Amino acid sequence: LLSDCLLTAVKVLMNLTNDNAIGCRQVGGCRGLESMAELIARHFPSFTRSPLFSEMEKTGSSHQKKDKHLTDQELDFLVAILGLLVNLVEKDGVNRSRLASASVPITKLEGLQESEQEMIPLLCSIFLTNQISADTKEETTTFTLDDEEAVLEGEKEAEKMIVEAYSALLLAFLSTESRSIRNSIKDYLPKRNLAILVPVLDRFVAFHTTLNMIPPETHKAVMEVIESCKLP
Question: What is the pTM for the complete model shown?
Answer without folding.
Answer: 0.85
